[in-house]
Fold:
Amino acid sequence: MKKLNSPWAWIPSLYFTEGIPYVIVMTVSVIMYKRFGLSNTEIAFYTGWLYLPWVIKPFWSPFVDLLKTKRWWIVSMQLLIGAGLAGVAFVLPTPFYIQASLALFWLVSFSSATHDIAADGFYMLAINDKEQSFFVGIRSTFYRFATIFGQGILVIFAGFLEKKTGNIPYAWSITMFVVSGLFVAMFCYHRFVLPKSDDDENALKIKHKETIKEFGKIFVAFFLKKNIGLAIAFMLLYRLAEAMLVKLASPFLLDPRTDGGLGLSTEQVGVVYGTVGVIALTVGGILGGIAISRKGLKYWIMPMALSITLPNMVYIYLSLAQPSNIVLINTAVAIEQFGYGFGFTAYMMYLIHFAEGEYKTSHYAICTGFMALGMMLPGMAAGWIQTYLGDYKNFFIFVMICTIPTIAIIPFIKRYIKADYKSDLK
Structure:
């Protein structure tokens, strides 16, 4: 039984499970709705709202501590996510699929955000500091595997079913049933494998009034931090261009050439954006961590800001040339995703840097809320902007214009970063 409760038995599966609903709600749903014939304006606006649970996550995280153990929250949310995805599968073939599936996706989003809170808290309570350091890379790796599984394998599978059946709603319904079954299986597995932690049980003994009071104190302390206005501006602006690009990258790849897209099949998008792109993103993130560990965030923040912005130009090329060579398309997407992964490292390290202090964990959670807001608002507007500008070429030029605020804010941020601040990655 002791071997069964080894961190190796549950950490990889827990973080693989954590990543899947996020990528389904944020990316796979965009591809699915595009295949169902929704406009870019509708897709970006509707799916943009699904970010909201991650934006407001810091506000209800104390209640996850108060009401039940984190272990209970983990297994309960996995079952609820499975039920929500099963519900999506049921409603996709119906005439009211848009409203019903969005409501169910929002339930999945809320459950996923709650699962994130519980899983990260459980990770810190169930294993010691040495094990936490050892497994930090393992958990990140399996979270990336979940991204490849969601954006890549699931999308390829849906595309295969589209061709096989000739029925798009049926193909995506089957796909959602499959992933729903996976979550039910994970619920059963983690129900028996997750260890019962005394620290997890003891956390419930804290009095409610004291916890609420402490939360208010933590929240006020965050907004009293030095240079808070500049920091929030950075959190909202650093990924401004990427927030809009990521919403319409898949629709651009899917749209027919007559509409300015590349006319790829669902399966091809699963390979190009969901597999090759995610691998490039992961490699970029790993190299970014190594770079910061050697010369520090202050040294790398401007090069990384350029890395997350300038490669967006490949989409201007793709929209102008509309190449049919799949190798060329893969290469272009890989360049952009590698730059995103490398540049995003600076953003995450800055959040850690800014959260330092007495309430580091809680303040980091608030930072991630602003991070989600910075993706949510531009993403919601992306479809309308693309429609207003008339075509993808103009939209991608506009995306490049939106990189200016990202670059412009870096010199101001750089002043307040410690020269010796480095990541823990070696």
